[in-house]
Specification:
Blueprint (H helix, E strand, L loop, with lengths): L10 H4 L2 H30 L2 H21 L5 H25 L1
């Protein structure tokens, strides 16, 4: 019992689902913040921070929007261009170690 003589009631007991969800969100945000700091440091250390910030991060919002809206592919055109795309990708992949 508390100082009033009434039984103690924890805030978790009286908190609604929204409050518990907000606590979980805050916990997740703290975890993500620590992860972001570690990831940024690792990218900086490997020399990939510039690419991540100028290429990868801007693409995230574009890819997210494409996922929500949906994207239609021309299967025939994609099949026709696959050999050229694979050759270009192979060439670029071989250049990556030299660029770093």
């Amino acid at each position: 019992k508390g100082w009033t003589g009434w039984p103690r009631i924890s805030t978790d007991r009286i908190a609604g689902a929204g409050t518990r969800a907000l606590r979980g969100l805050l916990r997740d945000m703290r975890h993500n913040s620590r992860l972001a700091v570690q990831t940024r440091a690792a990218l900086h250390q490997t020399g990939a921070l510039h690419v991540a910030m100028t290429v990868e991060m801007p693409l995230c919002s574009i890819l997210s929007a494409m996922e929500v809206v949906g994207v239609r592919f021309n299967q025939r055109a994609l099949t026709e261009h696959t050999p050229a795309i694979e050759a270009e990708l192979t060439s670029l992949t071989k250049q990556v170690p030299r660029a770093m």
